[in-house]
Amino acid sequence: MFCALSRGAAPAEPAPHWWQREPLRIINLVNALSLTIRIPPAELAARKVDQGYNVEHFEATDMRGGLDDDHLYFKTKAARRQNPDYLGAYLPAAKARGLRVIVYFDVHWYKPSFAERHPDWVQRREDGSALSGMYNVGTNFCVNSPWRDWVLQVVRDLAAYPIDGIFFDGPIFSIDTCYCQSCRTKFRNLYGGEMPSKKLRRGPAFRRLVEFQANSLRDFLHDAREAIHSVNPEIAFYMNGGGRQANWPSARLNRYLTGEQDLIGFEGGVLRDDLSREAVWKPSVAAKLLETQAGGKPRVVFCASKQSPWPFSVLPEPETRLMYAQTIANGANVWMGVMPPDLKVPEMQAVVAMNRFVAHNARYFLDTRSEATTALVWSDDTANYYGHAGMPGDPDAAFRGMADALESARVPFDVIDDVSLAREDLSRYAAIFLPNVACMSGAAAQRLRSFVSQGGRLFATLETSLYDEAGVRRADFALADVFGVAVAGPLAGRHHWDLMQPVSQGGLLDGVRREVLPSPLAYMPVLAREAGAVLRFMQPLDGPYEGMPQPSSLPALLRHPYGRGEAIYSSGDLDSAIHAYHMAEHLQIVENVSRLTPAPVRLENGPRSMEVTLRSQDHGRRLLLHLINYTGEMVRPIRQIVPVENLRIRLPGGRMPARVFTLMQPRELRPARAPGGGTEIVLPHLDEYEVVVIER
What we know:
Helix 9 (282-293) links the parallel strand 6 and strand 7 (299-308). The protein is of the alpha/beta class. The protein is 27% helix and 23% strand. The chain has three domains: 24-365, Glycosidases (TIM Barrel, Alpha-Beta Barrel), CATH 3.20.20; 374-594, Rossmann fold, CATH 3.40.50; 602-695, Golgi alpha-mannosidase II (Immunoglobulin-like, Sandwich), CATH 2.60.40. Helix 2 (41-50) crosses helix 3 (86-96), helix 13 crosses helix 17 (574-581) and helix 13 crosses helix 18.
């Protein structure tokens, strides 16, 4: 039976898939098979459900030392040795408890013995040697080789089970692969020539190679998804994607791969090594970037309860709550990687409480959109084709410094990318921050030119737009007319004791009450054409105690009206300097730039160690103000949060909200008219996280 549409009526919206209908709270017991196979399935599933998870990544392979075809614990024609059907035994127990099962399938780490039987599957270096040493003991196979047929057989067999999804860990290329015969033949057929070397990592030929590898991953994902959905279209499929880093070595370029996945995610919540060097906002920014790259699909931030690379470590509860809060505050789903022995440790109660909080308040985390009017650009092109980490203007350091400054200013912001600049709507933003976005296409530059001419504001640093999208240097900035400057020499360096001097007062220098300021360590010599200087560099000194230097003619910070908008340009790497040293004057300059445009929400008091995220539902009729308090004991890992009391929140506009209430510590709040206009809301108490719901 069906209902015919009347003439001119729009077709009905397709029903949402299961992964779109509720917030996902995903658990992955890492390297679990050897540790959990002896636990009765009903008991194992009950443990996960009792902790508030509604989805799991389930390992049905023994991954010790890498995967092979002897250690698959499910029925498949691709297995060389038939093992007990662990997956088949577990699924009824999970289904009985309402736990959805996504099968974890590692497609990037294989035992050398497996590779010896299939040498034509192995990724190879430019000299023809086989890849070795993957995770010290294994190797990896190539998506263009006949190995793909083995994978497609595995996923078809998995899809015959009543599972809910399949997750690929990988696929990836390695930094010096793949030059196997399958890749060489495919490249020659596509481009009519031989594969270029990876030793020269810029220019059109290298970009073509990176795109070839990314497209090869895309083709592999396409075939896998087609194979899965040919059996069951309600099986979700996705992979461990590329993070905020240079992704050319792995070819995990999310913008190429998103179309072949049902969800998109990467390891944005895995905290590593010395936590004093990790950005406290790391999961938040991962969720923001995923939202930009996902094309409306659900996002997943892969988090871990450990301090990587120590597998059996456990983070303190405040760190875990902050990680979880950042993820959900920015519209993403949480995946929590837990070592099986740590499932019951006391620290996991932080995850249990957050899981239950999200389950109880699910309606406030579905179908939300960002209300930020400020955008911070992460440039994959710059990360992939511009120099290397540690050089002056390092794109990661520049981004992190600018993000630190915006977080400190408590400015809600989105993270957008090169594709956003070149193709997508920028009109929702009042200001765009470009932290040394050195590599920029002509299309992106033209759209930014239009953005500013129509009233937008840019803040750019160092070599922004001086290189094309393949890393080839231009004679001048593509945005030279917008900045109002011209390049006057090569990139240069300064000493730690060198200085800048204000040319004017107020405006961008509000709150900077110094006759001289510390200088960034790298700068582009520029000639001010139409732009006016706000700061200028002073003459370099031979040492830190050589007296007061003389002024120079080199501008350090410039402001240029362009059309109905303006551009602010720092010729020094102000953002990288913030990342390295966090000097108050540098932070204040970025905060002053951010405050030139009206914000959708302001905090009138409280510490700078807070994140403010504003999202909405129902076409803006409901605002969701997420407040995350990072105020700890000045050391990481954070073991105790210092609460914030009586936080004053200011919303612009003349209309008073109909109702204001909180979710984490439920209470009704009373909005009032703010002095000078707008609405003021006082939040009595904030621990790590709160959501203020504003009904209009």
